[in-house]
Design goal:
Number of helices: 10
Number of strands: 0
Radius of gyration: 18 Å
Shape: globular
Mean pLDDT: 85
Largest sheet: none
Number of domains: 2
Low-confidence stretches: none
């Protein structure tokens, strides 16, 4: 986990995201340095999670500006799911609300539009989408570890291996494929 956080830290170092954490008052420069080095697990997860949410907010605003008709159906289904989630102990409609949101996402073809956006992104947009994908991989690894999902653990570990190679974490890069294969 620490090596994965160090990998994403070396990816964002000097990109402006680290400076953003300081300028917003989220962390001090010393703490940001430790986050980038993969020293603080919870602070690093918090910093990357806040950044991820902000980037998704901007990303969806961009997508919905080009297709406002998709926004209405997804927002309605999302609001219903949020309401059911708030009352999840008293409600048995949570799976139905989730299915409705998935249906709205598929109907709007927003997932296809996201893939097309990724294919045509360049410059800073490509950098940020790669950052989001890398952190989502870390989130999958955390989920697999916490819930004991072995298949997801192996898939996330295999996905993390390419980031270990890319950011010169050679011990993890060499042993990750062996670990997954065994």
């Amino acid at each position: 986990m620490f090596s994965a956080l160090k990998s994403i830290g070396s990816y964002v170092e000097g990109s402006g995201i680290d400076q953003l954490w300081v300028e917003t008052g989220m962390f001090s420069p010393t703490t940001v340095r430790q986050v980038l080095e993969g020293k603080h697990l919870y602070r690093a997860m918090e910093a990357h999670m806040v950044t991820l949410m902000a980037l998704y907010f901007i990303f969806f605003q961009t997508l919905w500006a080009n297709a406002p008709e998709d926004k209405t159906g997804i927002e309605e289904a999302s609001a219903e799911l949020n309401e059911e989630f708030r009352n999840w102990k008293a409600s048995s409609r949570l799976p139905e609300a989730h299915a409705k949101l998935v249906s709205a996402l598929e109907k709007s073809s927003i997932l296809w539009k996201m893939e097309k956006y990724d294919e045509h992104a360049s410059g800073m947009a490509r950098f940020l989408r790669n950052y989001v994908k890398q952190f989502e991989c870390i989130l999958h690894f955390v989920r697999a570890s916490r819930q004991g999902q072995w298949d997801l653990h192996l898939a996330a570990h295999e996905e993390l291996a390419k980031y270990f190679f890319a950011h010169d974490h050679l011990n993890y890069a060499r042993l990750s494929p062996v670990y997954v294969a065994e």
